[in-house]
Specification:
The chain has helices at residues 6-27, 32-49, 88-92, 137-146, 148-151, 171-182, 207-228, 244-256, 292-306, 321-330, 339-344, 347-356, and strands at 64-66, 69-71, 75-77, 98-104, 117-120, 125-128, 156-160, 188-192, 234-238, 261-264, 285-288, 312-315, 334-337. By secondary structure, it is α/β, with parallel strands linked by helices. The strands form three sheets. An eight-stranded parallel barrel has the order 3-4-7-8-9-10-12-13, surrounded by five helices. A three-stranded antiparallel beta sheet has the order 5-6-11. Strands 1-2 form a two-stranded antiparallel ribbon. The longest helix has 22 residues, at 6-27. Residues 1-15 have low confidence and may be disordered.
Length: 363
């Protein structure tokens, strides 16, 4: 069934877009991280009072199947916006077909020193060097369990990482611990080895280190599947800065270890598209429009190599319905947004879902 979008878009034009435009103008006067927390607190307040129903009519019906899961629509929230899973219900109100929260680590950690989040409005971009700031996996699980979205059976991705002070040689122990802890509560589990903000993390994307990690994760997944009587898909999140040879080697490993999905991509270290802009020289990962082309190129290469055997979730530079369609046409089965939500607001979720309702997944 297709739901008519006309009533929603009327509301969107007359209420949502002007309100968000005004809110963004005010929020962009604040420090980026301060504005981030204020926005989430406001969404929570609106959810608890019921006022969030003003912009939530009906979930856009554009079903997709991937990784053995049925998604109400193919538009998801990327990890990073809600690292602790503390705002799941408020974010679900925006109309996402699925939500991914994290990255969570075994132990709580403060992340990198502030300031660590920067806007580049001229490029519709962000630079962040947050460093997996989160309250640890135990608090994370409590938040997930307490969310109505989880209790209703919403598609929830749980994104796991390693603590900054865990030596890279022992990284697998952190991932395995998080995998075991979050497994009962996840629709799928994302293994984040591509953040540029944890020292040496990206070296896990290649060679013997990748093979060793994937081997251990798959073995533990099999044990947990038997224990909990359900198989939770494993998804690998990769960087946009890999060259063709690295992508080929990574695709081989994904197939060899039968990883159920791949997210392409995380943020980039490249600054080519933002040279000369304020904050362009800040350390961290660049997201938004400047990463769109690189992300899409990785999706195209992976799609050709994986031949439909492993679904791709496309992320990076999606700020319009057309951008979402480009990811699907490049070979993605689903998409996620984050930075686009900051610049475009809640209307972007529905716009992307509507655009993809008639877009055919690449065979």
């Amino acid at each position: 069934m297709r739901i008519s979008t006309q009533p929603y878009f009327s509301i969107q034009r007359t209420i949502i877009m002007p309100l968000y435009s005004l809110a963004r103008h005010c929020l962009f006067k604040l420090d980026a991280e301060q504005a981030h927390h204020l926005t989430l607190a406001l969404l929570d307040k609106l959810e608890k009072t019921g006022l969030s129903k003003l912009w939530n009519t009906r979930l856009m019906d554009s079903p997709r199947s991937a990784m053995g899961l049925s998604f109400p629509n193919p538009v998801g929230l990327a990890a990073g916006l809600d690292k602790d899973g503390a705002h799941i219900d408020a974010l679900a109100r925006l109309g996402f077909g699925f939500i991914e929260v994290g990255t969570v680590t075994p132990r709580p950690q403060a992340g990198n020193a502030k300031p660590r989040l920067f806007r580049l409005p001229e490029a519709e971009a962000l630079i962040n060097r947050m460093g997996f700031n989160n309250g640890g996996v135990e608090a994370f699980i409590r938040n997930v369990q307490g969310s109505s979205f989880y209790q209703r059976g919403g598609i929830l991705g749980l994104n796991i990482g390693k603590n900054a002070d865990t030596p890279i040689e022992q990284a697998a122990s952190d991932y395995l611990l998080c995998l075991e802890k979050v497994y009962p509560y996840a629709s799928y589990i994302t293994v984040n080895i591509s953040s540029p903000n944890t020292r040496n993390l990206r070296q896990l994307q290649s060679g013997d280190e990748l093979a060793t990690l994937l081997d251990q994760l798959k073995n533990r997944q099999q044990q947990l599947a038997a224990q909990h009587q359900k198989k939770v898909p494993l998804v690998l999140k990769i960087a946009p800065d890999l060259d063709a040879e690295q992508i080929h080697a990574l695709a081989d490993k994904l197939l060899q270890y039968e990883i159920e999905g791949v997210i392409a991509t995380n943020t980039t270290l490249s600054r080519q598209a933002v040279q000369g802009l304020a904050h362009a020289d800040e350390a961290g990962g660049l997201s938004g429009t400047p990463v769109k082309q690189a992300s899409t190129a990785v999706i195209e290469q992976l799609s050709a190599l994986l031949q439909g055997k492993i679904p791709i979730i496309g992320v990076g530079g999606i700020l319009s319905g057309t951008d979402a369609q480009e990811k699907i046409q490049a070979g993605a089965s689903l998409i996620q947004i984050y930075t686009g939500l900051i610049y475009r607001g809640p209307a972007l979720v529905r716009e992307c879902a509507a655009a993809l309702s008639s877009t055919t997944i690449k065979p």
